[in-house]
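Task 17 of the worksheet. Students: predict the tertiary structure of the chain below and write it out as structure tokens. Keep your answer in the requested format; marks are given for formatting as well as content.
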Amino acid sequence: MAARGLVALGAWALLSAGSLPACSPVTSPCGSGGCPPQECATLSSQNWAVDGFLASPEARVAVGASIESSLTPGVEAQCETFITAVMWHIDDPSLASLTPRGRSVWITGLAQGSTSVGARITLSDGIARDARPRDVRVVPPESRAGGQIVAEGSLTIPPYVPPGTADRAWSGWVPFTTQAAGRLDVVVDWVSPLNSIDFSGYEGHCNSTGSCGRIRLIVRNLFVKPLMATFDDPRTPPGAYTIRIDNLGPGEETVRYEVRLMPS
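Model answer:
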């Protein structure tokens, strides 16, 4: 998954079967011994910020789209109880709405313009700190005109549940067929930004991973909605394909999808 607070607008996110990253060791910034545990008492004196780890000066979100932002620094598990409340706020609520999720917040574009999002953090020692706000620019929605729609509709998908429980139907399957070669663009949107959605694309018509052909597209939740991606071949040959949409929860979700063929 990408880092929280991704600010790319409608990024075309693609991990094709041939471009999945190889595993590699991760070097600790604290050396071979690793980092010491976070000292919870120091949270009162931290310089809190909204997306403070990002270098770009402003977040961009399209009208009707959403991005997730989070507070920095991070809070380790043993210090969770030291944060008693986080109150998110926006300078101009007519431009964007906020859907808080603890120390992160989803920002949904409502109208074009510039504003900023901030937060007040209350700690267990009674100290309240204001996080440095992040500028947000709401821009026009992306145009999806052109080409031919080869599949569109909606699915209601229950959330993921752990193995061994009765109901594990947390994936929706969308088979479709193309009659010409070209670029296949996929857009997946859903109602609540608090639910995590991802999707993948396969050769053939199928309703389980065991019955599908080769993987042509993998998109993990990038903390943006809607999710948009393109099949791995700009001249995808005509034939049968399937999109699998996964609802990672926590709640039931209605998912809207569109597959558009741009002939080549």
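Marker's comment: The CA atoms of residues 181 and 237 lie 4 Å apart. The chain has a mean pLDDT of 85.
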